[in-house]
Amino acid sequence: MCFTRCTRCIGYKLLILALLSIVANILLYFPNGETRFASEHHLSKYVECLHGILGGGLLVLIPAAVFIGLHHDDCCGSFGYEDSGKSCAMLSSVLAALLGVIGSGYCIIISALGLSHGPYCFTHLERNWVYPFTQSSGGYLFEYNKWSECQEPQNIVQWNVTLFSILLVLGGIEFILCFIQIINGIIGGLCGLCCSHEEV
């Protein structure tokens, strides 16, 4: 069944994307490879939302595992036909894809908010830990001369912008793949059921 092959292909892609999301989120915790900012709670509140670990990571790993293992499922071979069982499994994969949509959607939203609000850093103007770019509504992304306002952690703006952007893109691709699987699962499941009924 070509729908099943497509589902397994999506599963492998989601597996890679989910692992990359987890790695990117972990890196957000360690600006410039330093651990002290995490231990001192000097990180953006959006870093601590675990959107790459939970959302784009674990909640996408579950459907990825379901999609990859789909060829083992036959839903007890309903109607006594293997294709019918596979169509049942395809329809059930839609539920797993919905979980992936929720997880990737969460990753997209938090990444966008993290980019919009900017990093939490120590500034020379305030002499305190603040969100210096909150009022800019993301405008700071194009005002590179203002990035130097953040003294600690060093290069935190570049660090956050790069990793939040990566997570935003990864979450977007995961969302699209899961949405494709919802359509693929519905069509594949319904086609399989129709074919099995004709055989009966």
Distance between the termini: 18 Å
DSSP, total strands: 3
Number of helical segments with 4 or more residues: 5
Q: How would you describe the shape?
A: elongated
Overall structural class, as computed from helix and strand content, comes to: mainly alpha
| Range of helix content | 55-70%
Strand content: under 5%
Task: Tell me the domain tally.
Answer: 1
Question: Residue-averaged pLDDT, rounded?
Answer: 84
Which value, in Å, is the CA radius of gyration?
A: 22 Å
Low-pLDDT runs: 72-85, 193-200
Major sheet description: 3 strands, antiparallel
Keywords: Membrane, Transmembrane, Transmembrane helix
Membrane topology: Multi-pass membrane protein
Transmembrane segments: 12-30, 50-70, 91-115, 161-180
Family: Belongs to the L6 tetraspanin family.
Q: Mind sketching the topology for me?
A:
Blueprint: H1 2-28, H2 36-39, H3 51-68, H4 82-117, E1 121-123, E2 128-130, E3 150-152, H5 156-199
Can you describe what's shown?
By secondary structure, this protein is mainly alpha-helical. It has one domain (1-33, 44-70, 89-197). It is 64% helix and 4% strand. The protein is built from five helices and three strands. The chain has helices at 2-28, 36-39, 51-68, 82-117, 156-199, and strands at 121-123, 128-130, 150-152. Strands 2-1-3 form a three-stranded antiparallel sheet, with no helix packed on it. Helix 1 (2-28) runs antiparallel to helix 3 (51-68). It is elongated, with a radius of gyration of 22 Å. The two termini are 18 Å apart. Its main location: membrane. It comes from Colius striatus (Speckled mousebird). This is Transmembrane 4 L6 family member 1. Keywords: Membrane, Transmembrane, Transmembrane helix. The chain crosses the membrane at residues 12-30, 50-70, 91-115, 161-180.
